[in-house]
Amino acid sequence: MTSTPLKTSNISVIIPTLNEEGQISRLGSMLQPLGGEIILVDGGSTDHTVKAAEDIGFTVLRSPLGRASQMNKGAHHARGTILLFLHADTVLPVDFTEPILEAFEDAKTALTAFSLSVNTKSVLLRAIIGIANIRSRWFHLPYGDQAIALRATTFFGLGGFPDLPIMEDYQLVKRASGVGSIITFQQKVTTSARRWKRLGILQTTLINQIVVVGFKLGVAPERLALLYRRGLIRLS
Fold first, then answer.
1. Architecture label for domain 8-192
2. What would the pLDDT profile of 125-143 be if each residue is shown by its tens digit?
3. Which helix (H) or strand (E) segment is 191 a member of?
4. Where are the domains of the chain?
5. Average pLDDT taken over every residue of the chain
6. In terms of Cα–Cα distance, which of 12, 9, 3, 5 is closest to 151?
7. Burial (CB count <10 Å: 0-12, 13-18, 19+), residue 226
8. Rounded to 5 degrees, what are φ and ψ at 4?
């Protein structure tokens, strides 16, 4: 007995937002032609994010601020058998559903992600992103800005995203690696360089590495979240 082939309509796209009004029209143009479920989970925007999303027909939920809790809430409301978690400033590749659906035809696939690119002309930042892609492929460790996807059954079997203010994506991927294969596609998503522009390329890269190392060493996630979002931290 063969299983029913997966279709685009099996994919639920879940987007956590906070003050992303300017991204909504682009997200609609990118996602709505596919005919799948689009769930936006807002964490308390003070701009017109919610109204813009409702106006174009997204399913809109409200949640306490926190990417993990927002994405978990979206997942619990989703009807799709595959959950795709998308950052609001990320642009998916054309025909992005094809590699996802193909990958999940294999029962051994636990999680998928795309390779990463950033909308910048900076040679330094492109080199840094190239190193991140090597990490993702060689060590099977993509991060949340790479549009990770899982079967709903896998996601809930792993307990969803852990309730952390940061590194929730890292923890979920590590758990997923224990139940199946992690696949990073050659196709690339394009994410905004706005954080690198705000804090500077070298400082942002240093902060990212301190957060990862600090998390592994047991530094409180709340302190790491402060570093990540504001460029401030005290470890002692």
1. Alpha-Beta Complex (3.90)
2. 999 999 999 999 999 999 9
3. strand 181-191
4. 8-192, 193-236
5. 93
6. 12
7. middle
8. -70, 130
